[in-house]
Amino acid sequence: MQNFIPQALSPAQVEKFYGIPAGTLANLRWRKEGPKFFKRSRKVVYKTADVEAWLFGNPVLTADSIREEK
Q1: More confident: 58 or 23
Q2: Quick one: DSSP state of residue 4?
Q3: Which of 15, 29, 60, 68 is most solvent-facing, going by the fewest CB within 10 Å?
Q4: Is 9 helix (H, G, I), strand (E, B) or coil?
Q5: What is the pTM of this model?
């Protein structure tokens, strides 16, 4: 059975599904970095697409991956 990932995630759910600690997400929000988020009162949510775009947006290129692109 596949894991279902909801469209809107709390910081705890981001940690569960993607392994990014909720504390790290809080630090990133404070520094105005990281994935886009929405805040309503004290509740913070992330769109799954925004988390994935941020997570996969800046890959580290290795020598092997550069050779594959040629």
Answers
A1: 23
A2: P
A3: 60
A4: strand
A5: 0.79
CB environment 12-46: b (16+ within 10 A), e (fewer): ebbbebbebeeeebeeebeeeebbebeeeeeebbb
Under 8 Å between Cβ of 46 and 35: yes
Q: Can you tell me the distance from the alpha carbon of 46 to that of 12, in angstroms, rounded to the nearest whole number?
A: 11
Both tokens assigned to 36: 């886009």
- pLDDT beyond 90 at 25: yes
Structure tokens belonging to residue 67: 């050779």
pLDDT at residue 70, as a whole number: 63
Can you read off the two tokens belonging to residue 12?
Answer: 């705890």
CA distances from residue 68 to 56, 61, 62, 64 in whole angstroms, order as listed = 18, 11, 10, 6
